[in-house]
Design brief:
Helices cover 0% and strands 39% of the residues. With 64 residues, the chain is mainly β.
Amino acid sequence: MPRGTNSQGNRYNSPAVSQPNTTSYHYSNADGSYYYSNSDGSTYYNNGQGSATYTAPSGVKYHS
């Protein structure tokens, strides 16, 4: 599974090369936030301070 740290100090994880049709990945950011992009087109972002946003494949956003 490809993973590493980018130039901004953010850690990332992406699918294994053996799963080429899987487009999900996630970032764990240096500021404590994290972001998921799922293969169904949905995304999830948590700012690391108690606030999160889920975006459904339809584009509808849900905040918590």
